[in-house]
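Annex B, item 7. Sequence and structure tokens for protein A, then protein B.
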Amino acid sequence: GAFEASDQIGLYVTDYVNETTPMPLQISGNRANNTQVTFDGAVWTPEQTIYWGNAKSDVYAYYPYFEAITDVNKLYFEVATDQTIGGYEASDFLWAKAEGIRQADGTVNLEMKHLMSKLTVKIVAGEDYIGSLPEDATVHLHSTVTNVNIDLENGSVVKDPYSGAKSINMRNLGIRTFDGEKAVVYEAIVVPQMLENSVPLLEINSKSVS
């Protein structure tokens, strides 16, 4: 999905010590430190002007914006357990890095990557199924860790080993058509992780039947 008006990203800019050696990303002392940048539907505007240095810079961006970050190598993030309304978008952590940029290069191109995983569930009619698909069903994804530590310097993610598994209420996209076949589609943003064996994973509830 594309960014919408009033979306906000965080921006860091670091300088190079010389032509080949970039400064590491730090909590402060960078050329730009977690500058809030707001989208109006057409243009991104930073809350304060960021000036170029004489040499090259690396530019880091992430979404959604955090006002207070205490560790750029260990940002604590949590995907929503209720992803039915708003929680899905808020869970979709995006990250980008542009390396070795000079003022003469013009506009900085930041290609956002999804750092979380996505699970899609499609409910389709079996051969002998008669009737309509259950559009009002709720689908829960069980036994997943929802907390994660994110390294803003390299975009790596590690699930939080100290938080227990939780259940996620997946968002309902309604009926979609795939290769001419109708399906009710559900989605959830999930922290990348190895899932345990022999634990409940998906639960579908429709008309009080689980």
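Protein B:
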Amino acid sequence: GLDVWAYKEGMEHIGWDGVTSFDEFIMMNHTNYGPVYSTTEMFAEMDKRDVHFWGITKHNGHKDDPYNMCEYGYIPPHIQSSFIAVRKSMLLSKDFQEYWADMPMIQSYVDSICRHEAIFTEKFTRKGYRSDVYVNTDDLKEICDYPLMMMPVELIKNRRCPVFKRKSFFNVYEELMDFTCGQATCELYEY
């Protein structure tokens, strides 16, 4: 079930009484390297923000759904599921608990994207929950959909992003070449 199912099983193992005893519950997977900066700065900044859930980075979305599996018919802008912190008010909500209870089994990377990562932010935003990310990349929307992968040095050097994608160093060649000439990885390695 990849990271999504690990999050679900982790919460089931702890139980809802355990999960809801936390002020903030962090779902984090192994797809990032870091931290390259202390996370103390990030947590201090995000503690000031009036949100129900937050992450480090976001994907800017796609106007269509290249997988033909996303319930919205497109890939909405979304917090990347490699790190999502959920605050107590949302942990206690019926919405959050039902989301995980109703999660279908995740069989593949595409399932993980379309049944969780690409819809989580949109689904909860539509229900009135507020979210934000530590590393704002709104100004990069016209340049790329996936700044963490395609512009890692910009995010680390100029926006103090504490992580970068492991996949930068082993991504499927064709996928990488669809969006870059490989320079992002070379620049990251040199930096």
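Comment on protein B: Strands lie at 24-28, 32-33, 53-55, 58-59, 78-79, 83-87, 131-133, 164-165.
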